From TrEMBL:
Entry keywords, A to Z: ATP-binding, Ligase, Nucleotide-binding
Protein's UniProt name: Putative glutamate--cysteine ligase 2
EC number(s) on file: 6.3.2.2
Pfam families xref list: GCS2
Keyword Oxidoreductase carried by entry: no
Family membership noted in the UniProt record: Belongs to the glutamate--cysteine ligase type 2 family. YbdK subfamily.
InterPro entries referenced in this protein's UniProt entry, alphabetically: GCL_type2/YbdK_subfam (IPR050141), GCS2 (IPR006336), Gln_synth/guanido_kin_cat_dom (IPR014746), YbdK (IPR011793)
GO biological process, one term: modified amino acid biosynthetic process
Stored SUPFAM superfamilies: Glutamine synthetase/guanido kinase
Organism: Amycolatopsis albispora
GO molecular function: ATP binding; glutamate-cysteine ligase activity
Presence of keyword Transport: no
Primary role: ATP-dependent carboxylate-amine ligase which exhibits weak glutamate--cysteine ligase activity.
């Protein structure tokens, strides 16, 4: 069975005021667990699951990780927030160290207000050549994953009009968006090395593509989704990502390679998903034409239905998608509460009431 794992990034906020809290080191010490990790800023923290084979195992790890980081943050008078951007919370300046300092000096103003958080999904793939071929197959579906996950509508105290302002911020980095089509692993490595040599990437582990090869694990890494508002939505992303990879592997086994898509159309599709989420017009990357986001999500579900059924995940995924349609995306729910109330909505407590059952 194809494996999967999730890394969730959270913002740290003062439990009383909601202001950004640079207490990552205190949280790490309190957690005393290698599933809780540093992120770019001291106001951010990451929680990682282990390698999971089933939806049930992953759901349990997601809830346990959220509960662990919430308890660790409480010892520092803070709460982790499940949102893609800080919104209206103050962003204190802190001196960066190590690799984070190199990143800060390289990108300067681009990272000056960048404390964006994502939900990253790793899916196991046998071999790097196969992994690159999987990237080619899966790329056109990434905007629909983003549309389902948008959870960062606020920035600097204002409603940006976007479902995912995190994606807008991320697009300012070089080499962002959907990765180009590659003929094989050698071509992939050559392109990454060229970007490093050109000085636009700090190192080979820092490509900004929404789906890339992991530099640490035998996986492809989805970096598409905003941090999920609930553990159920994080689980939904993971199950869809695994199903997309499984479907791509089946296509490759049948001798069907992916066709290149227009880079400009791909960029338009990512922008539309970030702008409208599920509420408006999206872009069909393969057909190069506009299409309602809801239709694109339905097409995604139809595409991966055989893979979801193979893993026994089809009923659960339909349940989780229905929950999002009924309750709205994270961005929708934040807007319903307004900026002053949204931060309480996003406080991580583990398996929160109202979270889709996993």
């Amino acid at each position: 069975m194809v494996t999967m794992g999730v890394e969730e990034e959270f913002l740290l906020a003062d439990a009383g005021t909601g202001a950004a809290a640079p207490v990552a080191e205190e949280v790490l010490r309190a957690a005393s667990n290698d599933v809780v990790r540093r992120e770019l800023r001291p106001t951010q923290i990451e929680v990682a699951t282990g390698v999971c084979h089933t939806a049930g195992a992953l759901a349990a790890e997601l809830s346990a990780g959220r509960e662990l980081v919430a308890k660790a943050a409480a010892t520092a008078g803070a709460v982790p927030l499940a949102t893609g951007t800080p919104g209206g919370w103050s962003l204190p300046s802190h001196p960066a160290r190590g690799r984070a300092r190199t990143i800060t000096e390289r990108y300067r103003g681009v990272v000056g207000d960048y404390e964006a958080c994502g939900c990253h999904v790793h899916v196991g793939v046998p071999g790097k050549e196969t992994a690159v071929a999987v990237l080619n197959h899966v790329g056109p579906w990434l905007p629909s994953l983003l549309a389902l996950s948008v959870n960062s509508p606020f920035h600097n105290g204002l409603d940006t009009g976007y479902g995912s302002w995190r994606m807008v911020q991320q697009s300012r980095f070089p080499g962002s968006g959907i990765a180009p089509w590659f003929s094989g692993h050698q071509a992939y490595e050559r392109e990454v090395s060229r970007l490093v040599d050109c000085g636009v990437l700090v190192d080979a582990d820092m490509s900004f593509w929404l789906l890339r090869l992991s530099g640490k694990f035998p996986t492809v890494e989805f970096r598409t989704a905003d941090t999920a508002g609930t553990a159920g939505e994080a689980l939904l992303q993971a199950l869809l990502c695994r199903a997309l990879v499984t479907r791509a592997l089946a296509e490759l086994d049948a001798g069907r390679e992916a066709r290149p898509c227009s880079p400009q159309v791909a960029a338009a599709a990512v922008w539309a998903a970030a702008r409208y989420g599920l509420a408006g017009e999206g872009v069909d990357v393969r057909a190069a034409r506009p299409k309602p986001a809801g239709v694109l999500v339905a097409e995604l579900l139809a595409e991966v239905a055989p893979a979801l059924e193979e893993h026994g995940d089809l009923p659960l995924v339909h349940q989780l998608v229905e929950w999002v349609w009924h309750h709205g995306t994270g961005a929708d729910r934040q807007r319903e509460r307004g900026l002053t109330g949204a931060w309480r909505l996003m406080r991580v407590k583990g398996h929160e009431p109202g979270t889709p059952p996993a």
